[in-house]
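Action item from last week, closing it out:
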Amino acid sequence: MKQFVYATLHPEIYHGHDRRPPFFEGWYYKLVSADEKTRLAVIPGVILGEDAHCFVQTLDGVSGKSSYFRYPYEAFWASRRELDIAVGPNRFTRTDLKLDLPEGDVSLKGTIALHTPTAWPVSLLSPGIMGWYAWVPRMECYHGVLGFDHAVSGVLQYNRTAVRFDGGRGYMEKDWGMAFPKAWVWFQSNHFEVPGVCITASIATIPWMGGAFRGFIIGLWHNGRLHRFATYTGAKVEQFEVHDTHVDWTVSGGGKRLRLRAERAEGGLLLGPSTLNMGRRVVETLSAAVEVRLSDSGGRELFSGRGRHAGLEVHDTLSLMDAAVSS
């Protein structure tokens, strides 16, 4: 129980110690160079079960090429007290990542420093982005935001070409639990004209007490302040539409309204966890764009901007759209 409480109040750390399958955990590091010509997602993780192993996935946001580096389960190590994990020769913490991914179609070697990432605030009643749901045991999937927008630096040897990330930007999040949801939409951007702004938003089908509901969480980080809209805050979905070219989403709550429009783009194929293995195919892009408009109840604009190099996933959304519009 003591470790459960500690882990709940520290969403960044590994939650799988002493857990039985099905269980997975993965961390998501997004890296964009200063000239914005290199965009990478690096995803270390582990899955327990018949096909227990650890891995590092990569996604090139420019070409859409993805790679999956698989390691034996025994090659995974994680601290119980802080974000510090090893996947084979690769090491990941809250302040840096050290990559030694082998030669082949893709190779990545080097160290990237992450400068003062700011996480979603944690309190006893609301431990991070999950709110009070973080205290509910055995949910299908938990989520954490570990860094809204932070500077990065360092050099990676990317396919034997040196790519310098000094002056670039980064974003960090993670997921853990039994499996990814049946259906979801997720998008994120921290590349706005105004530095330091980040939008992260997700809506998904959540199993609950023998049934399911459609839950959502949105955070807009602006001027050092977090504007949050979520099922657990009582916010309401006014509009949610998924089209071939874009996603339109409007929510309201706490005397504010947030309008989002995510423009879809070509992406690459990642692997996601089911209760059996890492066999779920997930299409993700790092080339989407997000229009954001925050206003108060009187219609006065509080923030407006366009986020570029946005991550976007849209997965099995027909039932999700119908339920979200009626929520």
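Closing note: The chain has a mean pLDDT of 95.
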